[in-house]
Sequence to fold (191 residues):
Amino acid sequence: MHESDGYTLGVADPGMADTLYEAMMHVWQLLPDKDLFSVGSLTPDWVRERITTSGFGIVARSPAGELAGMMIVCFPGPDEDNLGYDLGMPEEALPAVALMDTAAVLPEHRGHGLEYRMFRFGEERLAGTAYRWLLCTISPRNAASLRSAEKAGYTVLMTKEKYGGHLRHILCKPINGASLADLPPIPMTTE
Ligand SMILES: CC(C)(COP(=O)(O)OP(=O)(O)OC[C@H]1O[C@@H](n2cnc3c(N)ncnc32)[C@H](O)[C@@H]1OP(=O)(O)O)[C@@H](O)C(=O)NCCC(=O)NCCS
Fold:
């Protein structure tokens, strides 16, 4: 869908950290329901570190070249923000987790399926690598984001409070030969 509408996707240049941070905060400030988008740990340095060292940034641009959307792909390794811990993944699986984090599309560019396309772009970049588990969190009330993720092949595995008390689905897409059947049993209860 929309693939011929002139929007283009690419990897964020390392020098874009401040721009991405400001755009994400702009999106957050405009949200009537701020619970949908958690920006608690977001700082320019957090973005810089992810897009230069422990992940990469995805940017969507409008046909006119304006920044339209962004997503940060993080490689958390053993860090406590690795959602693999929530899913009960064994230690040895944690380095194979990539977090599809902090997706935002500027209001004037919504409706073009850009979050879905960023999910797909990130997955394509990770094809053939050692990453096997694409994980993300989405509020159960964030209909557009849930639709984008499920359309991109993500499955809700768990629902729990995250980020200081915000209810979130944890979604997973196995890639590079992994299968949901390889995961430990997931508790079905909501914490
Ligand atoms: C979530 C967000 C990134 C989605 O932007 P987008 O990619 O432009 O999303 P779209 O408007 O193209 O909608 C995506 C899909 O959801 C559907 N959708 C949108 N709003 C919806 C709603 N209120 N109810 C049901 N479905 C909805 C669209 O119809 C579309 O489905 P389709 O592909 O089958 O047509 C954007 O709304 C945003 O930046 N929100 C604030 C930040 C945020 O919530 N980030 C995600 C945090 S996890």
In short: Helices lie at 17-30, 44-52, 114-126, 143-151.
